[in-house]
Design brief:
Blueprint: H1 6-20, H2 23-36, H3 40-51, H4 53-65, H5 69-73, H6 78-92, H7 97-110, H8 116-119, H9 122-140, H10 146-171, H11 188-197, H12 201-217, H13 224-254, H14 265-277, H15 280-311, H16 317-332, H17 336-362, H18 371-392, H19 401-404, H20 417-441
Length: 443
């Protein structure tokens, strides 16, 4: 029975780190650090708890099933499993996630070197995204080589670039920390918790889990227990890496108050690298952003392509990959603002449902895998998250607001938690009653 070496597990963990670490993850911690100030430690702890903890739980949930997201969601019903997987892959893939990382790479990396007139012209964006997706397509054609491409080459380059930035910030401190601002004054841990929650990486983890499993199988490992163990180990390695990088980026934000308070993390990070390295800092930032976006995009394209290729037999993996990259190119050229306006409402609806599904998977044996528990809990979460999505889409929900405000934690953005728990309890009672009725009638 063939096992897997610690070295290969380590590189698979590095690959998973890069799949998670996109441009969004790069810009969240610095602005958190600047605004949390003297309350940075509880704020970053809350951020890591959800920003790292939830994705790690998702990877473990997939590892324990030994299968993919569709299999996990099919515990509600087989049809729901297919429906849920398609919705998530389309959202993470060509409609939102993939074009967004390409566009962010252009906005934060390449466009900073263009003049104002040229940066606002459509052609530079098209040419950049065309080359970006051509490279992503080429690197995604052979999923079995992802560990070598990302884990052994691109991830070390990314980590070295971030390390150079952090070391410079340590050797040449930008200044002292400032006072905490906004919600970080009274509840820094909870605010950090919510910022980590909003990274939405738990959804991506559902897609990336099968990439990790397949990478382990490519090493010749077939035993389910070994695959599960190696997947969890790779997830822990990725989690440790993410935690350290988040803490480092957050620290840079803490010491950046002397540069002035920024409107967002991207603006703040640009100010920091310029202060530390001058104009050459923009080159370093462009390298970091491009590598972060490139690795994440490769992972998303590969995950989506593997799923849609397995869903049917007529179109090969290569052609599916080409189609996804082509759609990503088209959507990316709609502009970042358009992509964000479309993606946020949909992700706010999907995310609570995904988290509920992940958490229930760990309690599967306790409630005997009763499908009604999954169904009712997901329904409870979806009902509340639907209103959050409508609100983000600027669709009036005034009629429901007076009722929603009575739901615990709704104002904090996690109002779906209690309805999900209540739904799970109702589903359990319902399932048990149906089970006893079936036994009594002999059906």
């Amino acid at each position: 029975m063939k096992g897997i070496s610690n070295k290969n597990v380590f590189f698979i963990g590095l690959m998973l780190f890069s799949l998670f670490f996109g441009a969004g993850n790069l810009i969240f911690p610095p602005i958190l650090g600047q605004q949390a100030g003297e309350h940075f430690i509880p704020a970053i702890a809350g951020f890591i708890f959800t920003g790292v903890g939830l994705p790690l739980l998702a990877v473990i949930a997939i590892a324990l099933t030994g299968r993919d997201m569709q299999y996990l969601a099919s515990r509600v019903s087989p049809k729901f499993g297919i429906f849920f997987a398609i919705v998530v892959y389309v959202s993470l893939g060509p409609s939102m996630g993939i074009p967004r990382v390409a566009n962010v790479s252009y906005e934060m990396g390449f466009s900073t070197f263009l003049g104002t007139d040229l940066a606002t012209n459509h052609w530079p964006l098209f040419l950049y995204t065309f080359l970006f997706f051509a490279l992503v397509f080429w690197l995604s054609l052979n999923p079995s080589k992802l560990v070598g491409t990302i884990g052994s080459i691109l991830t070390p380059l990314l980590l070295l670039s971030i390390a150079a930035l952090f070391i410079a910030a340590m050797l040449f401190p930008l200044g002292e920390s400032g006072p905490a601002l906004n919600e970080y004054v009274d509840s820094p841990g909870i605010k950090g918790f919510m910022e980590g929650y909003l990274t939405l990486d738990a959804i991506a983890a559902l897609a990336f889990g099968i990439i990790v499993i397949n990478s382990i199988r490519d090493q010749g490992v077939e035993d389910k227990k070994m695959i599960t163990k190696a997947t969890i180990q790779a997830g822990v390695i990725a989690g440790i890496g993410l935690s350290l990088v988040y803490a480092a980026l957050g620290y840079m934000g803490v010491t950046s108050v002397s540069l002035g308070y920024a409107n967002n993390g991207g603006q703040l990070l640009t100010l920091v690298v310029q202060q530390l390295f001058g104009d050459y800092g923009l080159i370093l930032l462009a390298v970091i952003v491009t590598l972060a976006c490139l690795t994440t995009c490769i992972g998303l394209v590969s995950a989506c392509s593997q799923y849609f290729a397995s869903l049917q037999t007529r179109v090969s993996y290569g052609w599916v990959t080409f189609g996804i990259c082509l759609l990503g190119l088209i959507v990316a050229n709609l502009g970042l603002d358009t992509i964000l306006s479309i993606s946020k409402p949909i992700l706010l609806i999907i995310y609570p449902v995904s988290i509920t599904l992940i958490l229930l998977s760990f309690l599967h044996k306790w409630f005997r895998g009763i499908p009604a528990v999954y169904g009712c809990a997901l329904l409870g979460a979806a009902l509340i998250s639907l209103f959050d999505g409508l609100k983000a889409a600027k669709i009036s929900i005034d009629f429901a607001v007076p009722y929603l405000k009575h739901i615990p934690m709704y104002e904090q953005g996690v109002g779906w938690v209690i309805p999900a728990i209540v739904g799970a309890c109702i589903g359990y009672v319902w399932g048990r009653i149906n089970s006893k009725h079936s036994q009594a009638t002999g059906k």
